[in-house]
Design a protein that fits this description.
278 residues; alpha+beta; 11-stranded mixed sheet; 5-stranded mixed sheet; 7 helices; 19% helix; binds 2,5-dioxopentanoic acid; binds magnesium ion
Length: 278
């Protein structure tokens, strides 16, 4: 089952088609530990939903209202290698090796809803940054009581020149207007997502593909539950939250994003999150 937040309201896609919910409040709609069961039951008896004959992709909004977006880092070997290399000059190289092996994961605050764009939206690169990349990340939707009910595609836009200059600059490298994208929908499988699901990143410039790579989420070193448990240790989320789970794909060091680039992040069963660099 997939849930879309749209200009028309909340739309659920099941095998039977598209259904518009009579509940318009995203926070209330999403914050249910039994969301999959609840939707299956409601759609079966046609309660609280109206069947739709058309679904217009252009109406899709970012699937967020009051939720904070958090992110985990250095959860794949590729990220560890890239970070060690970029911060060697600043003396930060060993931090990334250590956090990859440590019990405590790297978890950082990524964005308020204001800084998040949705499918077809414009992500930004900072004006004071020379080296910029998208980070395609499986993103968890977690309810207020700490249950992982949904999955979406996330883009953890990152300034590698700023985080490479000094690891203490991480918040500036990661959090700014248009620094996060989520969408196109929230996938609600009713069970944990298949670990063999693939994440694919494709970047096009003037109609040509300039970067393409994919990785299975099973290559991640930590479990989703482990990351969620650390996040929930001392933080409460009355409306649930999003947790980006880290990137396993980072373009080579000579690559930087440019204005107008098209970024496609595709995850099995979720779909493709498309964004443009403003
Ligand atoms: O520590 C820097 C950020 C790591 C990150 O965002 C990632 O691995 O995805
Ligand atoms: Mg990241």
């Amino acid at each position: 089952m997939k849930i879309f937040k749209t200009t028309e309201g909340i739309i659920v896609k099941s095998d039977e088609g598209y259904f518009l919910s009579s509940e318009n409040n995203w926070d209330i709609f999403m914050d249910r530990d039994d969301l999959f069961k609840h939707l299956t039951a409601s759609l079966n008896i046609a309660a609280d939903f109206t069947s739709l004959s058309v679904f217009d992709e252009r109406n899709i909004l970012a699937p967020i209202r009051s939720q904070e977006v958090w992110a985990a880092g250095v959860t794949y070997l590729r990220s560890r290698h890239a970070r060690v290399e970029e911060s060697k000059g600043a003396g930060g190289g060993s931090f990334y090796d250590r956090v990859y092996e440590a019990d405590r994961p790297e978890i950082f605050f990524k964005a308020t809803p204001l800084r998040v764009v949705g499918h077809q939206g414009k992500v930004r690169i900072r004006k004071d940054s020379k080296w910029n990349v998208p980070e395609p990340e499986l993103t968890l939707f977690i309810t207020s009581s700490g249950t992982i009910t949904g999955y979406t595609a996330g883009n953890d836009m990152s300034s590698r020149s700023i985080e490479g200059e000094n690891p203490l600059y991480l918040p500036q490298a990661k959090t700014y207007d248009g620094s996060a994208a989520l969408g196109p929908c929230i996938y609600i499988p009713g069970k944990p997502i298949d670990p063999e699901s693939k994440i694919k990143l494709s970047i096009s410039r003037s109609g040509h593909t300039v970067f393409e790579e994919e990785i299975a989420i099973s290559r991640m070193k930590r479990s989703h539950t482990e990351l969620k448990d650390f996040l929930f240790r001392e933080c409460s989320f009355p409306n649930g939250c999003f947790l980006m789970t880290g990137t396993g794909i980072i373009p080579e060091n000579d690559f930087t994003l440019e204005q107008g680039d098209e970024i496609l992040i595709t995850i099995d069963n979720i779909g493709t999150l498309t964004n443009y660099v403003a």
